[in-house]
TrEMBL record:
Entry protein name: Argininosuccinate synthase
Family: Belongs to the argininosuccinate synthase family. Type 1 subfamily.
Record localization: Cytoplasm
Record gene name: argG
Entry annotated with the keyword Ligase: yes
Binding site for L-citrulline: Y88, S93, N124, R128, S179, S188, E264, Y276
Top-level taxon of the source organism: Bacteria
Domain Arginosuccinate synthase-like N-terminal: 6-166
Amino acid sequence: MSDVKKVVLAYSGGLDTSIIAKWLQEEYQCEVVTFTADIGQGEEIEPARAKAQAMGIKEIYIEDLREEFARDFVFPMMRANAIYEGEYRLGTSIARPLISKRLVEIAKETGADAVAHGATGKGNDQVRFEMNAYALMPDVKVIAPWREWDLMSREKLMAYADEHNIAIEKKKGKKSPYSMDANLLHISYEGGIIEDPANEPEEDMWLWTVSPENAPDAPTYLEITFEKGDIVAINGDAMSPATVMEYLNKVGGENGIGRDDIVENRFVGMKARGCYETPAGTIMLKAHRAMESLTLDRNAAHLKDELMPKYAEMIYNGFWFAPEREMLQALIDKSQENVSGNVRVKLYKGNVVVVGRTSENSLFDEAIATFEEDGGAYNHKDAEGFIKLNSLRLRTAAKKRGK
């Protein structure tokens, strides 16, 4: 441990990382630099500064990264319609590359020997933080206290906090709080009663959304404008990427949009149950697919859908900066050149319903698609040869089996 003189810690100011800051000072006898990122978690981050100062930390980085997070990470992922295992919208996963990027940048700026994080040895985040850090700074030393110490429960962590006079918010007597992670894209919940997949979450666990049962009885309509696959305006008002997400989180939460209860397969090999609120992401994904349905060629759209699970898995597993993800991103971005126009959605009691879409780049031809007289735009007789050619192998095999 003596070879580490200075370490940059990804620091939220919460239970785990507050203890880690103190633990690093005591166990490694090194200087600690804290880095706190505002990526839209919806909580005041300045108190982290006071906590860090109370532990004698002199170099404290607190940065507003909301626009960079939305523009350079969430929006590119949304162009791919990325969902992991059919349900998870990757809210935690997509935040880790940005935090890792700034961690190693600050390490270089401050001359630090190492970086540290508060991810546990059972989770995905340890992989994401470290894979992304190594991709950007190959020789960086990573300290993961959860793989070294014996504070292996929330109760032990709280006892350590009491012993070292570390202030912890949301403390509820001896009851451990949920393990939560929030950013512009989502808020996640793990631990407590929901560790058992059979237990329904308590209603007061949900912080961003009203229950669909208690959502307004009148629907909310939104007109969402896309340019090259990205949302640029809502109801005619131009918005930056972060502002888009903040607005959609608010209106989506008010309508009970975006609750998910998932058992997922972690990269480290175990199944885990998590609950998520992703109001903005749920609306964005639905609207984006609607825009693509009008503007993307069929085979281009189908190829994107075939590649999407692999792309989502790369993000989930921590390979954002890997060459294969960057290759896929180039393909995805190329597909978005004509994905521009407007999508009208209706939000109602937990549902996002697409009710209209328009685009100057629309590939929809009413003259061909109509069930009325088409004026000769489509020759019905052409279908006979098309069907016979496509069924040739089936008819050939059937004849052979018949013999």
